[in-house]
Specification:
The structure holds 2 protein chains of 2 kinds.
Chain A lengths: L2 H14 L47 H9 L6 H6 L16 H7 L20 H9 L8 H4 L4
Chain B lengths: L2 H8 L4 E5 L7 H9 L8 E4 L11 H10 L4 E6 L5 H13 L4 E5 L20 H12 L16 E6 L9 H11 L3 E4 L5 H14 L6 E8 L3 H10 L7 H8 L4 H18 L5 E6 L5 H8 L5
Parallel strand pairs in B: 1-2, 1-8, 2-3, 3-4, 4-5, 5-6, 6-7, 7-8
Helix pairs in contact in B: 3-4, 4-5, 6-7, 8-9, 9-10
Classes of the chains: A mainly alpha, B alpha/beta.
The complex binds iron/sulfur cluster.
Chain lengths: 152, 298
């Protein structure tokens, strides 16, 4: 598996200037890598795009998102991909940087988002503070706590 | 409920927001002396977040100071300088002091400022930040950790009606509106036709109903100021004829004012515009004059 990131980068780096964020969204961005935007924006162009469509930060380069938007409307781009252009892409998981998005796609790892992103919450029992509090307050431990958390 | 949220809800009259000047010292007295000339004329005031990538007294500190001094702040949160943890902490911290209005924006790049060697962050982008802020108000951090007493937040953002790709800007406004932006302060636009096209597009998509559209107008004094903005402020393009008109006028300061008044009047005449956001670089009473000339009554 260690070879996969190298192979992936060799291919995608050449063709799409891939930055190996590990959670590829190329299909939804007109096959234009959003990580080549100097601000690494995942959801469309910033307000700084120049009159000629070039980048605020790197004036000699056309804005990545101007290119992406144009390409997403191209006749060779599948309609479903074009529609996905307007969907909100979640924040980058910085732990995946440098890993192979191909295997992350296969395992579904690239679609994992923080719980709160989709409105879910986790049980506050699991926070450091509440766990430490429990040590002082024996009554606060729910039934079966010790069975589930055996001492080492 | 913030006054801004009530006005956006009721739309009983045009809304006026303004940019607060940067503060670099002088204690609360400095804040008060900049606030006094603004306060009677505006509904809410932006506590800016290191505008144009220059460090100043922080957004949170100014927002709290404004609230303390009886004004209604809008806490700007940019994505350039802080990661998602710090951004959430800032919103939560300001909310402790009653700051409800949040304006999420990407932010000019570090290269626009006087410390271009700084590391740029952009951990979240602005549409993502809107969603994260909405989560805080709904009682959870992005991680999913619950918040027992969620802050009351009224969330807005910024959009540039006059930057390429022009046709895509309405979709981007829709994305922000769908994620929970209830007001959009629009980047200053010296092309009335572009603003009109953008607003018409927003009305066609129904964006103007849940989300108050507030075009920005900018009070300047000279052709030099306009040229400076044109050359140095990302995303602002001032057409030649406007710069020439001001430069060749007998009284450039008055001509600059008239340019701004015309742009403002045109913006307010468009169906779908809920009010104005004003940036004042003159500090000579022109803001009061403009509000009076336009018949706005905060
Ligand atoms: S102009 Fe385009 S490429 Fe440049 S920073 Fe903004 S969105 Fe990214």
């Amino acid at each position: 598996m260690r070879l996969l990131p190298i192979v992936e980068h060799a291919v995608k780096g050449r063709v799409w200037d891939c930055r190996m964020c590990g959670q590829c969204v190329l299909h939804s961005t007109g096959m234009t890598c959003p990580m080549t935007c100097p601000k690494t924006l995942r959801n469309g162009p910033c307000g700084g795009v120049r009159e000629d469509g070039h980048c605020e930060v790197t004036p000699e380069m056309e804005c990545v998102w101007t290119v992406a938007e144009r390409r997403s409307r191209s006749v060779i781009n599948p309609n479903a991909w074009e529609r996905e252009f307007d969907h909100l892409r979640p924040p980058v998981d910085n732990r995946l940087r440098g890993t192979a998005s191909w295997s992350n796609l296969f395992s579904g790892r690239d679609r994992q988002t923080p719980l709160g992103w989709d409105g879910a919450t986790y049980s506050p029992d699991l926070t450091v503070e509440s766990s430490l509090g429990e040590v002082d307050d024996i009554d606060s431990l729910d039934a079966g706590f010790h069975e589930r958390n055996p001492l080492p | 409920m913030s006054r801004l949220s009530e006005l956006v809800e009721s739309r009983e009259r045009h809304i006026v927001t303004a940019e607060f000047p940067s503060i670099d010292g002088g204690g609360l007295d400095a804040v008060r002396s900049k606030l006094d000339p603004l306060l009677p004329y505006v509904d809410a005031i932006n506590a800016t977040d290191n505008p144009a990538a220059h460090a100043h007294a922080s957004n949170v500190s100014i927002a709290i100071a404004l609230a303390t001094l009886g004004a209604e702040p809008i806490l700007q949160v940019v994505c350039r300088d802080r990661n998602r943890i710090a951004q959430q902490a800032d919103i939560m911290g300001a909310a402790l002091f009653g700051v409800e209005n949040i304006c999420a924006l990407t932010g000019d790049d570090v290269t626009a400022g006087d410390e271009p060697e700084a590391r740029r962050v952009f951990d979240l982008d602005s549409p993502q930040l809107i969603r994260v802020a909405r989560g805080l108000a709904e009682g959870r951090y992005l991680s999913g950790r619950p918040i027992a007493n969620p802050p009351r937040l009224f969330i807005g953002a910024v959009e540039n009606p006059s930057a390429p790709p022009l046709d895509y800007r309405v979709k981007r406004a829709a994305l922000k509106s769908n994620e929970g932006a209830r007001f959009l302060q629009l980047q200053i636009c010296y092309y009335p036709d572009r603003l009109e096209k953008f607003i018409t597009g927003c009305v066609a998509e129904g964006i103007d109903v849940p989300t108050a559209l507030l075009p920005t107008v900018c009070l300047t004094k000279s052709a030099r100021a306009l040229t400076f903005m044109h050359d140095n402020v990302p995303g602002i393009d001032v057409p030649d004829d406007i710069r020439r008109r001001v430069a060749s006028a007998a009284n450039p300061a008055e001509e600059s004012y008239q340019v701004t008044r015309e742009i403002a009047q045109h913006a307010l005449s468009l169906r779908g515009v809920a009010g104005l956001h004003i940036t004042d670089f003159r500090h000579d009473g022109s803001l009061a004059r403009l509000v009076g000339d336009l018949g706005l009554r905060p």
